[in-house]
Automatic annotation (TrEMBL):
Organism: Brachybacterium endophyticum
Ranges where the Enoyl reductase (ER) domain occurs: 10-303
Gene3D superfamilies: Medium-chain alcohol dehydrogenases, catalytic domain, NAD(P)-binding Rossmann-like Domain
Protein name as it appears in the record: Alcohol dehydrogenase
InterPro entries in the cross-refs: ADH-like_N (IPR013154), ER (IPR020843), GroES-like_sf (IPR011032), NAD(P)-bd_dom_sf (IPR036291), Zinc-ADH_QOR/CCCR (IPR051603)
Pfam families recorded: ADH_N (PF08240), ADH_zinc_N_2 (PF13602)
GO molecular function, one term: oxidoreductase activity
Keywords annotated in UniProt: NADP
Length: 307
């Protein structure tokens, strides 16, 4: 099968289109014919060696954790899905070796959710990692009916999902974004504010008593976040480990089929939309990584895969 591989850590230039053996299907696993793979910052950070202290790697490795595709083979003791089912997954494994930037990928069945019919392959591949990060962070922080939530990075890949999910949970949302993106953030359901100097004052103008929850998806916002928290408020971040030193929660997303099914339901009921900014064919995965590294897109970057 064709796959994007790399044999040493580095920038996107180390990625190459290779011919590799199809992965074996173990017990409790399925093999997916990949239709699309989402691109996330963690992908190029792994390729650069950023997660080497945390995860083992087997070179040559195939990057990618977000996937959407069709089940083409089921392993022993798999009854939850069948050949031909359309699925999506946050396909993080315990090691870095066989990812989603390939024609085929194997995954534990416990990571899979069914693809919502209203999503195309690109949208489905764009949802799992970012959507689960948003959902799990908000639920861990206790966001619910009547909460006032400040979302840092409300126009970003995770933040844009967090705004919509928080609204669906019954919260009022204030979202930081550059002024040029305020219309989009407002359309997602948040009250936009410009980030940067004076942020705490701007948030306090909208929420004089402070906010119940701050969800940080960008980093470097600890001081203004603490300044706008109401008494008993909760702070979480996916980008700043120092949040734990201030009584907050540092959050790392987990693969979870049930949570992903919740997101699929939100899609089906029209409460969650997925914007794809740009897609690239598999052979141009390095360009997709560079586009994601640029960080100025409104929507997700995806890679499409042909059989």
């Amino acid at each position: 099968m064709k796959a994007i591989t790399y044999s040493t850590y580095g920038d996107p230039d180390v990625l190459e289109l290779s011919e590799v053996d199809p992965p074996k299907v173990g017990p409790g696993e399925v093999r997916i014919a990949v239709k699309a793979a989402g691109v996330n910052p963690v992908d190029w950070k792994i390729v650069a060696g950023g997660l080497d202290p945390l995860m083992n790697i087997q070179f040559p490795a195939i990057p990618g954790w977000d996937v959407a595709g069709v089940v083409e083979q089921v392993g022993l003791d798999v009854t939850e899905v069948a050949e031909g089912d359309e699925v999506m997954a946050y396909g993080r494994k315990d090691w870095v070796e066989q990812g989603s930037f390939a024609q085929q990928m194997t995954l534990p069945v416990r990571t899979l959710a069914r693809k919502p019919p209203k999503l195309d392959w690109e949208q489905a591949a764009a949802l799992p990692l970012a959507g689960l990060t948003a959902y799990q962070s908000l639920t861990r922080l206790g966001v619910g009916e009547g909460s006032t939530v400040l979302v840092h990075g409300a126009n970003g890949g995770v933040g844009s999902f967090a705004v919509q999910i928080a609204v669906a949970l019954g919260a009022r949302v204030i979202g930081t974004a550059s002024e040029k993106n305020h219309e989009r953030v407002r359309g997602l359901g948040a009250e936009p504010v410009v980030y940067g100097d004076g942020l705490a004052d701007r948030v306090r103008e909208l929420a004089p008593d402070g906010v119940d929850v701050v969800a940080d998806y960008v980093g470097d916002v600890l001081e203004p976040s603490l300044a706008v928290l109401a008494d008993g408020g909760r702070l979480g971040s996916i980008a700043d480990p120092a949040v734990a030193e201030k009584g907050g929660t540092y959050i790392w997303v987990r693969p979870d089929a049930e949570d992903l099914a919740v997101l699929a339901d939100l899609v089906e009921t029209g409460k969650l939309r997925i914007d794809v900014a740009e897609s690239f064919p598999l052979a141009q995965a390095a360009d997709a990584f560079r586009a994601n590294m640029d960080g100025h897109t409104s929507g997700k970057i995806v890679v499409t895969v042909e059989a």
